[in-house]
Each structure stands twice: as C-alpha cells, then as structure tokens.
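Predict the 3D structure for this chain.
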Amino acid sequence: MAREGVVDRRDDYAYEDEQGEQRGVRLLREVLEVAVITLLLFILVRGVVQNYRVEGPSMTPTLLNSQYILVDKVQYVFSAPRRGDVIVFKWPRDTSEDFVKRVIGVPGDTVHVDANGQVTVDGVIINEPYVNDLTNPYQPNTWTLGPNQYFVLGDNRGDSSDSRDWGPVPRDDIIGRAELVYWPLSKVHVLSDWSQVYSGISR
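Done. Predicted structure below.
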C-alpha cells in the first residue's frame, strides 16, 4: 500500500511539471506574437508615414529649425508631386542625406530665377506669399525640366541650398510630401496648400 502511495505522488509531480512547462511555452509564444505584431505594425507605419527633423533655416517661415514633421510616403504612389508641395527627398549630391524644400517646377516646365530672385515658370511670374525673402545668392539661370525632374527651392531664398545650386531632383529620390508639423506642441499645424499660387500656368 505504501508503494502505491509513493507512485501516485510521483505521477502528480510529473503532471504538475508538464503543466508548468506548457504554461511557460504558452507565455513565451504570446510574448513572441506580440513582438512580431508590433514589428509588423512598425514596418507598416514606416512604409506609410515617416517623421523628419528639420535641419537649418532654409524653409523659414514655413518650417523652423528643429521642428518635427510627418511625411506622407503614399501620396506620390498614386499621384505626381505638384507645384507648391513641400517635399522630403534625397539630396542629389549625397543620397544618404534628406532635404526638405518646396516644389516650384514639374517635368516639362521651364523655370527662370533672375538676379533679384524673382521666379517665373513657363513665362508666368510667380508671386509667392510663403517666402521669407527673394534674395538670390546664385547666378540667374534658366532650367528646362526633363521627364521625372522637379525643381525645388527653400522658402528662405537667401539662405537655402536648392535647385539653383545643384539642379533638379529626380522623381525616384522623392520620399514623400510633408503634411504636418507635430513638434513642438505649441507649433502643431497642417501645412497650407499653396497650389493656387501656380494656377496661372497653363499646364
């Protein structure tokens, strides 16, 4: 009788150990599932929206140094960048660096910037209410844009390295359209749509 009692207790311990192992495996599996789902959501979100920190004063007053913006990376999958859009793109001289500027000319446009900084697109003078100034530290020049080329300028024209310096931006180097300033909280706002500024251009 004593031997039977000992055998029964051993069976109980084996059962409890097995159940304990099952609970541990189940907990580990659930932790891994949460981690995988979180990673997939992160990848999905990064594929749709990306944050970007503004470096320097070239987009003043629209964007200020050290502000954080959200960039829509899906918009240009379905439509082309438009004149007036603020975009983030890979710098043509070093594609490991990202820049933010405003689109002034689109493929097929002829863009001219004179010595005083006045911009014309296809012969139409562009009056830009969003600029800080029209100073042109570069030589006056004319650019005719080829397929998939975009002419970009900073809103702070006197302190901006842009297409006047290093030429048009290829479409493939455009990351997305800046939509929202989200930091600092006191400056949260949606970026204005200035497409009407270019409404006089026939194309």
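Helices lie at 2-48, 75-78, 163-166.
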